[in-house]
């Protein structure tokens, strides 16, 4: 009888030890990692650093020196976790289901160490993903979020050196394009991913996860780089000790110090074009809110679209505002034209819904012309839309005919732009009418962008109306004086440029000479002509 009791007590003691150790390790993780579901922090416990801070860096005579950076997050970026950028790739390049699976993995990621966490996020994000989809995301989606999260102090140190090399444990394909294009980095050494044909397998290559201090030795050999920049974490100190001179980015100071935030006017390159649907950085908590909102957002978008299609202007406007839509209009409403043709409204182009919002606010039917519009968007549009052919003579004749029938809306930029810039205005509209009314339009969204260059354009109105409180600001600037039109002796280019400048001043935007073709060649690799809402299947 005593022997079974001894076995029972022994089993009880072993179980107690296992559970106690497990809870102890979990408690240590919570204390040292400071877990916040909103950010899935991967930072190690803060340790006093033997290296000076980047704010004490001497910028003089650095042009001939070589600088190495120990990773991109926690050093060049202010964020401690790279999870949001994996989520961006999963959502924009994969699907909403892949992104949801990545979100569900958060509790598992929390208990894993840094190496396993990266491997799990890499597998979920990249398994079965096309290589050309990743190329598009790294070029058109990720740079916006990297720039908004860039550490000003670390960037200034990086920019001062003549030669720059970045070593990172995250997949190289996620950061190389941005580092070389925007930060002028000469070489990026990162974790390589295994591919099968045109697809990622989700596994790491044979070399595995990059060990940064070993990669530094392999890259430079016996030569020590002049300057090293890393985080204040202990595991970066070995990397920094291999450099002649080293500086650290104090993550806690950067997090609470607004001086480390990169202002837009100090961006290495202007951010004019970017793509993707998400308008926010998808941290775990933000992504959770998005997925909880998604089914309600779809129903709300359908409701708002039906309001514009089925109800009169007054009712549609009132019920739309009641549903959370924020519409603001101000300015001088134009008088009825005394000529035999309608008024030509010249608008800035932020979304496909700009003419719809203008028609609703003016409470009058308008006709909109467009170069490319999906069949679905054309079908659900509550106003008349007419396609243009890109043949200047034919398009001019079409617009003249439409002006004889009533008022017309034209967006001479030819495509949408999300950032505070105006693209070059086509001068065709100036040759067709003497009664021109410039209209400044700007929109704001908090969750989803209602425009895309490489995605399904038929979903543009739905994504815009899925936002909890989308806003549209409209300012009617008043009819252009006759002496400033072609009838007053001005050339069509002068008229177009004058109106572009007038609208930019009203919105606080900057004028550019970029065109529709520039945008689509950069973001989608095509000229932006919509034929069918199908994704390409080429690698």
UniProtKB/TrEMBL annotation:
The chain crosses the membrane at residues 278-296, 302-322. It is found in: Membrane. Pfam families: Acyltransferase, HAD_RAM2_N. GO terms for molecular function: glycerol-3-phosphate 2-O-acyltransferase activity; phosphatase activity. The lineage of its organism: Eukaryota, Viridiplantae, Streptophyta, Embryophyta, Tracheophyta. InterPro entries: HAD_RAM2/GPAT1-8 (IPR056462), Plipid/glycerol_acylTrfase (IPR002123). GO terms for cellular component: membrane. This is Glycerol-3-phosphate acyltransferase 1. It comes from Vigna radiata var. radiata (Mung bean).
């Amino acid at each position: 009888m005593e022997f079974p009791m001894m076995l029972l007590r022994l089993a009880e003691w072993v179980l107690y030890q296992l559970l106690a150790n497990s809870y102890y390790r979990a408690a240590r993780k919570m204390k040292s990692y400071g877990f916040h579901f909103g950010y899935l922090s991967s930072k190690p416990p803060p340790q006093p650093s033997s290296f000076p801070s980047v704010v004490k860096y001497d910028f003089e005579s650095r042009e001939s020196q070589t600088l190495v950076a120990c990773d991109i997050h926690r050093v060049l970026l202010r964020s401690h976790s790279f999870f949001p950028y994996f989520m961006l790739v999963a959502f924009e390049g994969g699907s909403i289901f892949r992104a949801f699976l990545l979100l569900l993995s958060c509790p598992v990621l929390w208990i894993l160490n840094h190496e396993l966490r990266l491997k799990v996020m890499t597998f979920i994000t990249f398994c079965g993903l096309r290589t050309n989809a990743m190329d598009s995301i790294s070029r058109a989606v990720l740079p916006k979020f990297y720039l908004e999260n860039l550490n000003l102090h670390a960037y200034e140190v990086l920019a001062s050196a003549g030669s720059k090399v970045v070593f990172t444990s995250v997949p190289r394909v996620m950061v190389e394009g941005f580092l070389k294009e925007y930060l002028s980095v000469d070489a990026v050494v990162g974790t390589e991913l295994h591919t099968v044909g045109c697809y990622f397998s989700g596994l790491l290559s044979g070399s595995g996860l990059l060990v940064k201090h070993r990669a530094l030795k392999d890259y430079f050999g016996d030569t020590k780089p002049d300057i090293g920049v890393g985080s204040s974490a202990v595991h970066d100190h070995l990397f920094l000790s291999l450099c002649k001179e080293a500086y650290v980015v104090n993550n806690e100071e950067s997090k609470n110090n607004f001086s480390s935030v990169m202002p837009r006017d100090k961006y290495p390159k202007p951010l004019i074009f970017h793509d993707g649907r998400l308008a926010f950085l998808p941290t775990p908590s933000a992504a959770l809110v998005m997925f909880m909102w998604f089914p309600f957002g779809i129903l709300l978008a359908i409701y708002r679209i039906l309001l514009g299609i089925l109800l009169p202007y007054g009712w549609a406007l009132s019920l739309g505002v009641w549903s959370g839509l924020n519409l603001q209009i101000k300015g001088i409403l134009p008088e009825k034209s005394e000529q035999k043709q309608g008024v030509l409204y010249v608008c800035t182009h932020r979304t496909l819904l700009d003419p719809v919002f203008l028609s609703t606010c003016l409470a009058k039917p308008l006709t909109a012309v467009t170069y490319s519009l999906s069949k679905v968007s054309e079908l659900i549009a509550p106003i008349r839309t007419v396609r243009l052919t890109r043949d200047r003579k034919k398009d001019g004749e079409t617009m003249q005919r439409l002006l004889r029938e009533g008022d017309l809306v034209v967006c001479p930029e030819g495509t949408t732009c999300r950032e505070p810039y105006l693209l070059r205005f086509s001068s065709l509209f100036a040759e067709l009418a003497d009664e021109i009314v410039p209209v400044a339009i700007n929109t704001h969204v908090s969750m989803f962008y209602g425009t895309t260059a490489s995605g399904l354009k038929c979903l543009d109105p739905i994504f815009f109306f899925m936002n909890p409180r989308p806003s549209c600001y409209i300012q009617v600037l008043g009819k252009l004086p006759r002496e400033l039109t072609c009838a007053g002796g001005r050339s069509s280019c002068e008229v177009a440029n004058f109106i572009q400048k007038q609208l930019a001043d009203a919105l606080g935007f900057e004028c550019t000479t970029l065109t529709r073709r520039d945008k689509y060649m950069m973001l989608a690799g095509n000229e932006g002509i919509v034929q069918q809402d199908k994704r390409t299947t080429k690698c």
